[in-house]
Amino acid sequence: MQKHIPTKAKAPTKAGGCARALKGSLSGCDQTQPAVPQGTDRATWGTTSKNTPADNLSSPPLCNPNATPAPGKGERIGKPVPKAGRRIPHLVEDNLTPKGASPMGATPRKGSFNRVLVLNQDRTPAMPCTPARARRLLSAGKAAVLRFQPFMVILKHNTQGKQPLQLKTDPGAKTAGLALTLQTKTGGKVIWAAELAHRTDIKHALLQRKAQRRGRRQRKTRYRAARFQNRTRPKGWLAPSVKNRVLRGTTWTQRLIRWTPITHLVIEHVKFDTQLMANPEISGIEYQPGTLQGYEVRQYLLEKWDRRCAYCGRDNRPLTSDHIIPRSRNGSNRILNLTLACQPCNQDKGSRTAAEYGFPDLQPSTLGLQAAAITNTIRWQLVDALKTTKLPIEYGSGGRTKYNRTQQNYPKAHWIDAACAGPSGEAVQLNPHQQVLRISALPRNNRRMVRPDTFGFPKGQPKGPSNVKGFRTGDLVKAVVPTGTKRGSWYGRVAVRATGNFKVGQRDGIPVRYLAKLQHNDGYNYEPITSTFLPGLKARVASAIC
Ligand SMILES: [Zn+2]
Asked: Where are the CATH 1.10.30.50 domain residues in the chain?
């Protein structure tokens, strides 16, 4: 059994390691090698195994800040492993910050970065600073790394200066946009932005849990008569899959209030008219009766589809109602999604959609209303949650966001929508090429106790402990392997194995003794995203490669 010791016990190469780590993570290069933060006063930080050579952790960066970012994590980041403790002579400001216009200036430049979040010595939030300034602070030993994702430093003194800072949110059913804007005389200026991807697997996970419980109870307990429906739902109850989105939005608002001196909140208060989405001509009293007035569903279908199978066109035979997008594929029970089919056609179609079955014309032209329904449901709950922060809140409609965005010629992205939300979104300075943070909500554990084989019988050993040698699946780690086939530096989320050979990013079988923990799993995955949708950027990347 190995003993893990906190990194702060380790000695030299103080600022160097931090500065280089900072450089890597800020240059947006996935070949990042963040070093363990030295001099950090959090004991939880950077536990590393005994056998790890301390010098390996401060190995020089192998990534070129000007190189095109290579996608994918856990890739071998450079080879060979450089000599331990080598100093890089060019670690000066000029070499780290590309010359030219400022990242937020009028001329957008490929790869401008989020500002670095800063805390004062007493852990109160300070104004976020530029990456260059953070590097200088770290090199001078005036700050230490506190978090890697999102990157945050803690000062060794307290600062006073505060400027008006807005947190702008664009809530969405799948992805929410977050933007921190600095209020200047000419309008807002985006200094930090992120996109928060919600979990979409919650309904499935709950159904799976239900099935597993039901199976277990009928196997293991005596018969019990059904109970009355004696459960009630509290007022304001939301389905777990929907509530999750409210909670994530609240969590990130509270986190950012803790980490930055936010003075105002802005929220896009969206409301979708689902009837108008289905029928653009609808007006007045037509909102009230609904499609089915005067009909039963089956009668309506028989009349609408002329008592024929929608697929083979034959009549005078037993007809069944068919979901154009099957229920198993998240198709709804809306009348728009129903048609008539004879038994053979219905069987033959199976779990395919009408379009996949060769009838694209049958497919309803309107998209599902699920996302709109979720957004409508959470809008007030989110506002209520934000009100508890006691900060002034500014509201903006979805139409206003789009108007602001198109007036300023910004492309569509969740974080740009957030920045353009509300009346304050009229004049926003931002770089569409900015590298923003993609935050994805992830499940933490799997309920399954043992894996079954194809026939449902237990296979292998029961699930082991989730904590293996001080690591948990999802921790952010760095590994420097000096020899062997796994030689190189590896960085990413870890998947623990009982054997002690872990998976780091995409690379499996890395012995635990080479691992250093950078950050505990906090239920999110973080990766930088660059806007690749702009043709100008693509051309520039192409010319950089050639
Ligand atoms: Zn048919």
From this structure: 291-362
Q: How close is the Cα of 365 to the center of ligand 1, in Å?
A: 22
- Condensed to tens digits (0 to 9), the pLDDT of residues 420-429 reads 999 999 999 9
| CA-to-CA dists, residue 27 to 73, 120, 192, 336, 532, angstroms | 15, 24, 15, 49, 16
Residue-wise pLDDT tens digits, 466-504: 899 999 999 999 999 999 999 999 999 999 998 999 999
User: What is the reported pTM?
Assistant: 0.68
Q: How far is the CA of 305 from the centre of ligand 1 (A)?
A: 12
Distance 353 CA to ligand 1 centre (A): 15
Could you tell me which CATH class the domain 291-362 is placed in?
A: mainly alpha
Q: For residue 296, report the distance from its CA to the centre of ligand 1, in Å.
A: 22
Q: Cα of 343 to ligand 1 centre, how many Å?
A: 7
What pLDDT is recorded for position 186? 87
CATH tag for 165-201+240-274+376-441 (out of 1.20.1250.20, 3.40.50.740, 2.40.40.20, 3.30.420.10): 3.30.420.10
Is the pLDDT score of 32 beyond 50? no
Asked whether the beta carbons of 81 and 478 are under 8 A apart, the reply is no
Q: How far does the centroid of ligand 1 lie from the alpha carbon of residue 261, in Å?
A: 64
The strand pairing partners of 338, in sequence order, are 323
Residues 6 or more apart whose Cβ sits within 8 Å of residue 534:
411, 432, 433
